[in-house]
Amino acid sequence: MADTAKLIGECPHCGNEIEVNQVWGRGGVNDGGYVLECEECRKPFDFPVGRDIGMSNVVKGARVLETYDEAVVGSKKAALKRHGIRK
User: pTM of the predicted model, to two decimals?
Assistant: First the structure.
């Protein structure tokens, strides 16, 4: 059985509200996040989600450009770099 939570955030560039439906299973894997593109300003940004990124989805405010998996060495850094995001 999966658990769910609503994650509310905002675009760091323009403040547009972002809503993500976080879904994870008991003993789940794949801590990670999204590289999102804001529906308002069209700029990319990082949005950490957490466990079972593959089962979660963006409800409103942005579209997914890419996902990354924290367990894969270099996954997040490479995803952010591909979209011009520096951290």
Answer: 0.89
